[in-house]
Amino acid sequence: APAPKRVLVTGAAGQIGYALVPMIARGHLLGPDQPIILHMLDIPPAAESLEGVKMELLDAAYPLLHGIVATTDVTEAFTGVDIAIMVGGFPRKQGMERKEVMGKNVSIYKAQASALAKFASKDVKVVVVANPANTNALVLKASTEGNICPKNITCLTRLDHNRALAQIAERLGVTSKDVKNVIIWGNHSSTQYPDVNHGTVTLADGKEHNIRDAVSDDAWLNDEFIKIVQQRGAAIINKRKLSSALSAASSVCDHVRDWMLGTAEGTWTSMGVVSDGSYGAPAGVVYSFPVTTKDGEWTIQSGMLCHYQSSSDVSNPLGWTAVRQDQDEGDEDEGDGDGGDE
Ligand code: NAI
């Protein structure tokens, strides 16, 4: 068997953490043959709860789980990790200004970035889940300058990608495995653009069809579909009174697994990555693009200009100005009218 990989989950005592750690221990993150040493970090008020999660992980007797580090010490948590899944953060509470939450998360992500740079494996792969995910990833990148390759810092938009696949599959009565190559552009927030224009679906005839042709309802695709995906996080909060957790956890596994093990031939996925200026997204910002992956490296899929857009949109296919004004996206208030994410 290969040597164990160290996988860190921050905020591991939280809701996503509780759904995520068993998936990792089952092999959903790095495949069924890769032994794991799980590092779990949380803050002192959650220390006991974290200890309880550790006890349950032991009780589940996962064959792949070769060790558990459950700690509130940042240095211990980050030491030697190969994969860092950043779920921990300060949630926006009622009555708090968005700026205030951002400020708190900036300090957390700066501190954790320096621990990452000092103590993690030099080739550590990072996925930021905590909102505002794009911004937290940007802060993390800025604070690891020189020590962690910017290409190794990503944020999660795979949940949005999966939500888009699932909506198309539901609509056409197929499974999500039959749908491929949707794209999430932009931020993990209600400003994202879920794009089906390059996607295909395999129907009962066994043939691949363009999603637009198969759905045959542009009005739905251009309006309701986009809103459903953009506002799905808020819709889950309305029903569950808690934000998405099992779907977020499952999407984290998809994100990391595809990144490390590669996307299938002819298929891309969506990841928030550091922009190289592609598609007019300013170089250096963390932005969700279509990417293909191979052996732990992602590549932005080029040549995706959307031929369904009007000519005025083509000069600025992503509506960048609007996105940038909303860069401080994040955990929108539920029911504040513009939907928002988790
Ligand atoms: P939660 O509140 O249940 O868990 C967060 C955990 O982080 C808590 O246990 C808390 O003690 C811990 N924490 C706080 N500060 C920390 C720090 N400095 N270091 C380590 N741990 C710390 O929240 P939940 O539901 O698990 O969500 C976590 C984050 O993920 C939220 O920011 C949420 O908005 C975001 N999210 C992102 C999604 C995405 O697709 N990118 C989807 C769903 C949620």
Can you offer a commentary on this structure?
The chain has twelve helices and 14 strands. It has 342 residues and is of the alpha/beta class. The chain folds into two domains: 151 residues, Rossmann fold (3-Layer(aba) Sandwich), CATH 3.40.50; 168 residues, L-2-Hydroxyisocaproate Dehydrogenase, Chain A, domain 2 (Alpha-Beta Complex), CATH 3.90.110.10. Strands 3-2-1-4-5-6 form a six-stranded parallel sheet. It has a three-stranded antiparallel sheet with strand order 7-10-11. It binds 1,4-dihydronicotinamide adenine dinucleotide (NAI). 1,4-dihydronicotinamide adenine dinucleotide binds next to α1.
Short description:
Residues 157-302 form the Lactate/malate dehydrogenase C-terminal domain. The chain is an alpha/beta fold and 342 residues long. Helix content is 38%, strand content 18%.
Attribute tags:
342 residues; binds 1,4-dihydronicotinamide adenine dinucleotide; disordered C terminus; single chain; three-stranded antiparallel β-sheet; six-stranded parallel β-sheet; Rossmann fold; L-malate dehydrogenase (NAD+) activity; alpha/beta; tricarboxylic acid cycle; L-2-Hydroxyisocaproate Dehydrogenase, Chain A, domain 2; 2 domains
Furnish the topology, listing elements before pairings.
Blueprint (H helix, E strand, L loop, with lengths): L4 E6 L4 H11 L10 E6 L5 H13 L5 E7 L2 H5 L4 E4 L11 H22 L5 E4 L4 H11 L9 E3 L2 H15 L6 E2 L2 E3 L7 E3 L4 E3 L5 E3 H5 L2 H13 L1 H9 L5 H16 L7 E6 L11 E9 L2 E4 L10 H4 L5 H6 L17
Parallel strand pairs: 1-2, 1-4, 2-3, 4-5, 5-6
Antiparallel strand pairs: 7-10, 8-9, 10-11, 12-13, 13-14
Helix pairs in contact: 1-10, 4-5, 6-8
Bound molecules: 1,4-dihydronicotinamide adenine dinucleotide.
1,4-dihydronicotinamide adenine dinucleotide (NAI) binds next to helix 1.
